[in-house]
Amino acid sequence: KVVCVTGASGFIASWLVKLLLQRGYVVKATVRDPNNPKKTEHLLSLEGAEERLHLFKADLLEEGSFDLVVDGCEGVFHTASPVLFSSISDPQVHRISAELIDPAVKGTLNVLKSCVKFPTIKRVVLTSSMAAVVLNGTPLTSNVVVDETWFSDPLLCQELKEWYFLSKTLAEEAAWKFAKENGIDMVTINPAYVMGPPLQPTLNLSVEMVLDLKKDINGVAIANYTSTDVRDVASAHIQAFEVPSASGRYCLVANVTPIHEALKILKELHPSLCPPEICEHDTPSAPEFQISQEKAKSLGVSFLPLEVSLRDTVECLKEKGFL
Ligand code: NDP
């Protein structure tokens, strides 16, 4: 079976390509710069890559850029989207549009437009995010269970200047509208903060944040750590494609853990990851809210425990010289 993965050099996509090759798929993978070894070498050295991995150059903002790559595929995994948090802390509207919103929204529509042209495509799996789920105005208190029926409110994202949240919300919203209008069978995977050992040589943002876990994306102290391991996220994408009854959205959050518990685990793994002024305040606090795993589990998704995910992440960061 032939499938396409967009943004293949990224953190989640690299694991997705690895698992797809392991399962015997032929993978047509897009990267922005096929001549940059930092973006391609780790993919080309995967088991099965020589025989079954084909790299294509594609850009989210280039009309028709994905035609060649989705042609002949049965499944399309659209993961490419800018993951930018801190670099757009200042509300420069033109930068937000050009660097975040346009590649996310226009890029997604661009990929879907290519999919409409080729009847071989049976299903599209879109990597969305919990950022497109949680910000609907309902306060996240202890009796709240977030599930797939929630959809973030773009106006609220804008009001709160949560530009990344806005990009993922608008992209998923536009994707559902386009998919319904054009009869595309689409499933979305909505993970929260993705952790785990990176395959790529450079650090992606969510793993980099393990080095500074006490802060959230805007540098604000956070109460809870909501994460999922990258290997479970990649597997969930494949299950979303392979399980015929998969439909709609899937929230993917392994745990909602009080931040001090996560920091305690990190301290054991590498003391510098939990500075004393933070670790001393280890008053246990209950998770503020829950995220339903019911739908994800019905798809067959399993979740690695936080301890395992953090351990493997830290080990990998040590091996790669980041710690
Ligand atoms: P990475 O930054 O590692 O990967 C992002 C990918 O998108 C890269 O391959 C990047 O290409 C590509 N990309 C970005 N902008 C463009 C563009 N203009 N044209 C073409 N390609 C582009 O991030 P992740 O692997 O973490 O994220 C992958 C997906 O998962 C994203 O859709 C993200 O929103 C979503 N997600 C991530 C979470 C996380 O915590 N990591 C949580 C929830 C959802 P290049 O390598 O050339 O820069």
Automatic annotation (TrEMBL):
Listed EC numbers: 1.1.1.195
InterPro entries tied to this protein: Epimerase_deHydtase, NAD(P)-bd_dom_sf, NAD(P)_dehydrat-like
CDD domains hit by this protein: FR_SDR_e (cd08958)
Keyword Acetylation tagged: no
Keyword Iron-sulfur: no
GO molecular function terms listed in the Swiss-Prot or TrEMBL record: cinnamyl-alcohol dehydrogenase activity
Enzyme class: oxidoreductase
Occurrences of domain NAD-dependent epimerase/dehydratase (ranges): 3-246
Alphabetic keyword roster: NADP, Oxidoreductase
Record family assignment: Belongs to the NAD(P)-dependent epimerase/dehydratase family. Dihydroflavonol-4-reductase subfamily.
The protein, known as: Putative cinnamyl-alcohol dehydrogenase
